[in-house]
């Protein structure tokens, strides 16, 4: 149990650093900014208490916000992400999935389940984040395009990182 | 009471969610109050030191480009200096020149600083530099780069400072067209990090594509005549009172390494004066 907690603290630190030091500086014509750090929320165990899920989501967003001077923006998006996580999991998986597995990972649940799960979660988070960032619906399609392109890259990064970490285990 | 408790216990998930979301939106909306709070931004020494040690590694990759930029700026300044030296001064105005030099105190000082973090792909972009209050940096000082205006300092810790760049929808610069001296406000629309818009230029002003846009010097932040950008297109839109001018920004925010902070030596005097105005 303890080693599990340390593993999560480690992944928190690594994901935040990757996000603020590398991914925030990716420059593809000003359009794409992937947000890989939400992988932390995605891979929390199934049996995590709901209140802890929300608080971790809020704290993770706040942590990113402090680095990027965008107080409230990421914390709003990640809190929302944490809020819908239980509903998304219930929506796409039967009872057996929750009973037989502990962690929502590609190594336990397979590619197709994980792809559906991460696609829904990433899209929800990115749409929420990008629209709260511009704070307007004018230029709707421009924002939507940025959002979809960034989501695609985030999903690819999440899948890659899943395969990289599952080999170690 | 019992009913209330039961209601809270049953719906705590939604209620906690709404509470955290309300805190987030509250912080987002009251942004300006929190911005000055030192802890919650990247001038806080822990965050800044992470950026700094990372920058210590990555800045090596940009050394060549940085050197070229600085050399170009050096050459430009040397040219201007020669022009000043060679300019023949008419006898009449000599007194004025001498008078100005007698009151030796120059109005602006420039403090060099290294950029340790900056962004340009978001809607609200910021820059963090490695000089702070111990180096004489205060809030509301302007930041300029080798090619032109960069941003303004809004938050200072003892060794670091941070603030919005031009590419930030929360900040505007007072700017003018160099040839005609008509001024307006330059603002970014959040779309393309290479272009900004110059607003409030009336229709009778003559201008051409390629005209330089410089700072107006009306704010206390920047001296007059610091370059900002070049007119890319301008449009006489119907139903509007002002030109829609698209300005190509001179500063390339993607590889900004060294900047200078503008220190206005007359700022206290100005503030006192304006204070006495408002007191009356």
Characterization of this structure:
The complex is a heterodimer of chains A (169) and B (280). Chain A has helices at residues 2-22, 39-42, 50-68, 73-92, 95-100, 106-109, 111-134, 140-168. Chain A is mostly helical and 169 residues long. The radius of gyration of chain A is 16 Å and the shape is globular. Chain B is an alpha+beta fold and 280 residues long. Chain B folds into 3 domains: 2-35; 45-86 and 110-169 and 256-264, Thrombin, subunit H (Beta Barrel); 173-252, Rod shape-determining protein MreC, domain 2 (Thrombin, subunit H, Beta Barrel). Chain B contains 7 helices and 13 strands. Chain B has helices spanning 2-10, 12-29, 31-35, 45-58, 63-86, 91-102, 267-279, and strands at 108-118, 124-129, 142-144, 149-152, 155-156, 161-168, 173-177, 183-187, 195-199, 212-215, 227-235, 244-249, 258-264. In chain B, strands 4-3-13-1-2-6-5 form a 7-stranded antiparallel beta sheet. Chain B has a 6-stranded antiparallel beta barrel with strand order 7-8-9-12-11-10. Mean pLDDT of chain B is 82; it is low at 98-104. Classes of the chains: A mainly alpha (169), B alpha+beta (280). The interface between A and B is large, with 38 and 38 residues.
